[in-house]
Design goal:
Blueprint: E1 5-11, H1 17-21, H2 31-36, E2 70-76, E3 81-87, H3 89-94, E4 111-113, E5 120-129, E6 132-143, E7 148-158, E8 168-169, E9 179-180, E10 185-188, E11 191-198, E12 215-220, E13 230-231, E14 248-254, E15 262-267, E16 271-276, E17 282-288, E18 292-299, E19 302-308, E20 315-319, E21 325-327, E22 346-355, E23 363-371, E24 383-390, E25 396-397, E26 410-411, E27 421-424, E28 432-435, E29 438-442, E30 449-453, E31 461-468, E32 474-483, E33 491-499, E34 511-514, E35 527-531, E36 537-541, E37 557-564, E38 567-572, E39 575-582, E40 593-598, E41 604-614
Parallel strand pairs: 35-39
Antiparallel strand pairs: 1-3, 2-3, 4-24, 5-6, 6-7, 7-8, 9-11, 10-11, 11-12, 12-13, 14-15, 15-16, 16-17, 18-19, 19-20, 20-21, 22-23, 23-24, 24-25, 26-41, 27-30, 28-29, 29-41, 30-40, 31-37, 31-41, 32-33, 32-40, 33-34, 35-36, 37-38, 38-39
Length: 630
């Protein structure tokens, strides 16, 4: 081990052994002493039991006190002298056998705290102290047959991120307040502080907190027992509570440059900011356009803001002065929500715990919540807490993530506009809109309506998307499509058919053949079809094909289509629905466009998360003028 320690001694002159023994055994490790020694962060080292030692009368294991370095304590009984030997992170890294590292690969699932019908877990925050991970979060419990939600602050603990204690509620039931959404936990003047919000439900009906939502704090000496909530007057001491305005999602952090200065970030007209020097008297500073659930880190000379700008994922911005912010990532951090059934409706509220320099973890840990399904309101959906980790805040991993994930391809829907898409026929343009990151198709007339992607020469590819039918309807995805010169349909092509659960196997999960002159072959759900060179069909059943039980009615379902040469496969929710091979010498379609379909008047269908991955094609194709050329 390199010589990377610092020896500091404190003389206990005038104090009897009895007097010392009656004091808190952490007296000399108080944070005020830390601040007087250049903010050295202390930890209790291994000391042996000594009844004459006024600090420790029992063996103490190597357990952390203030996050980073370890400190060995030596008490000289005759000299009445306590010596503290601080060992730096560099020294600890040279002695890996002394540090038990948390094995993240042992975490069995990204879903660390599953919710159920009676308990929905949301908006997490966390702290790692004394070798214990402590999660704090919102607990929503449905009341009066889902008429409204009762909200609480809850907590659970773990030493290994695998085994968690039963959830404990910290606040009483009071729907007129509904304490919830803890922001973070800080240490100030020898106490722990947790900040959170109220989320009052007016008239005990509904799910969104009203205009009286405010910010609060509680105090604790041990992270177990907490004081009564206290109002956080972030608008200043002279602004009455009733005039403060609706505010939620607080987060407290020290100023990176000015000692003793604290900031509170909170959701009000974007993200608002106030500052204080005592956590009691606050002054409003300004606001930044951003989402909710703020989490702020200081890394180097910059602030990093993790926030939730929409339904899916977390944004990341940075600033050097809290006035000028710039995005760090272009797209939201969405982790694995596309394949997690427990987070398929929403993934949000990311809280990042900075343990990058802690040798026991060495990562940024993110806790967040996912919502299982859309219901009349997102707050009714079952919510669970999840975990992920990163070395750089941009690239994230999670339990059971494949080391080499297959890339889904290029996103061909940006979540905001229909750029790159066009309607067929043109007069059906009003049938297609974008709402909340989703393409919405609504049939306005008795006609087939399509939304076609601009690349009209697609040959071999994989297409992934998610679709939802709120009601009944017939829809699907057209592939290798070309204009139908006979006028029978807008175009001819192969069609992966979709519809509401109950519409029948000839539509939901089936392949259709939209040909102008060629025979249209039956390939219902669960069928493997081969068309021989003479155009004759040969069918068989697919063992383990998708069933109605695998398809979620009125909810989001995943579609995966693979077109490779003359072989076509159609998957729903990861299971093969139907497939065919077209060996016909004439009439086979080798390239064309893809398009989304509205089949019926007054039906509604929604699509999102559309990814296209082109596969290698050896054949050189002729130019195709398609639907755009008129």
């Amino acid at each position: 081990m390199r010589n990377t320690s610092l020896l500091i001694a404190f003389v206990l002159a005038g104090l009897s052994t009895h007097a010392c023994a009656g004091r808190d055994r952490y007296l000399l490790l108080d944070s005020r002493i830390i601040e007087s020694t250049d903010n050295v962060k202390l930890s209790v080292g291994v000391v042996r039991k000594d009844r004459n030692n006024p600090l420790f009368k029992e063996d103490k294991p190597c357990e952390p006190r203030f996050d980073n370095p370890y400190c060995s304590v030596i008490y000289d009984r005759q000299a009445r002298l306590c010596s503290f030997n601080f060992t730096t992170n560099a020294a600890m890294k040279d002695s890996p056998k002394k540090i038990k590292r948390i094995d993240l690969t042992k975490i069995p699932s990204p879903q660390v705290l599953p919710g159920d019908e009676n308990n929905h877990y949301r908006d997490p925050t966390a702290i790692y102290h004394d070798g214990v991970f402590r999660l704090f979060f919102t607990v929503n419990q449905p009341r009066d047959n889902n008429r409204y939600m009762a909200s609480f602050l809850g907590t659970t603990t773990s030493r290994d991120l695998v085994n968690w204690t039963p959830v404990k509620l910290l606040t009483p039931e009071n729907p007129t307040l509904n304490y919830s959404s803890p922001g973070n936990i800080i240490r100030y003047n020898g106490q722990w502080f947790i900040c959170f919000q109220t989320y009052p439900i007016p008239g005990l009906k509904g799910f969104v907190g009203d205009q009286t939502a405010r910010l609060f704090i509680m105090r604790s000496k041990d992270l177990e027992n907490w004081s009564e909530p206290e109002l956080l007057k972030v608008k200043g001491p002279d602004v009455p509570r009733e005039q403060m305005g609706r505010m939620i999602d607080p987060y407290l952090i020290k100023d990176k440059d000015e000692p003793g200065k604290w900031w509170c970030f909170y959701k009000q007209n974007g993200v608002s900011m106030s500052y204080s020097y005592d956590l009691e008297t606050w002054r409003y500073f300004g606001r930044q356009k951003a989402g909710e659930n703020s989490c702020v880190l200081v890394l180097g000379d910059r602030y990093y803001l993790i926030h939730s700008p929409g339904r899916d994922g977390m944004g990341l911005m940075s600033s050097g002065d809290l006035k000028n912010w710039e995005p760090v990532v272009e797209e939201n951090i969405r982790l694995g929500y596309k394949v997690w059934l427990w987070a398929m409706a929403r993934l949000t509220a990311g809280f990042v715990l900075d343990l990058k320099e802690d040798p026991r973890v060495g990562k940024y840990l993110m806790f967040y919540h996912g919502t299982e399904s859309d219901k009349p309101h997102e707050h009714i959906g079952i919510c669970s807490l999840g975990i992920a980790w990163s070395d750089d805040l941009i690239n994230w991993n999670w339990p059971k993530k494949p080391e080499r994930e297959e890339k889904s391809g290029k996103a061909i829907f940006d979540g905001r506009t229909l750029d790159g898409w066009y309607p067929v026929p043109k007069e059906s343009a009003s049938d297609w809109t974008v709402r909340d990151g989703t393409i919405v198709g609504h049939g306005s007339a008795d006609r087939l309506s399509y939304l076609v992607w601009k690349d009209e020469n697609l040959t071999d590819f994989e297409l992934k998307l998610r679709y939802r039918l709120p009601g009944k309807g017939n829809t699907g995805v057209e592939i290798r499509s070309k204009p139908d010169l006979t006028g029978k349909r807008p175009f001819e092509g192969y069609h992966a058919d979709l519809g509401h659960v109950g519409i029948g196997p000839n539509i939901l999960g089936a392949w259709d053949f939209h040909f102008a002159k060629r025979k249209e072959y039956p390939c219902p759900r669960g069928t493997r079809l081969t068309i021989d060179e003479e155009g004759k069909p040969h069918s068989s059943s697919i063992p383990g094909a998708v069933t109605l039980a695998d398809i979620r009615p009125h909810q989001w379902n995943d579609v995966h289509i693979i077109a490779n040469g003359n072989h076509f496969r159609f998957f729903i929710n990861g299971k093969l629905a139907s497939e065919f091979t077209d060996n016909a010498k004439s009439g086979r379609l080798d390239y064309g466009a893809i398009g989304l379909q509205i089949h019926d008047k007054d039906m509604r269908v929604e699509f999102k998360d559309i990814y296209l991955k082109k596969l290698e094609t050896k054949e050189t194709l002729p130019p195709f003028t398609g639907f755009c050329a008129e």
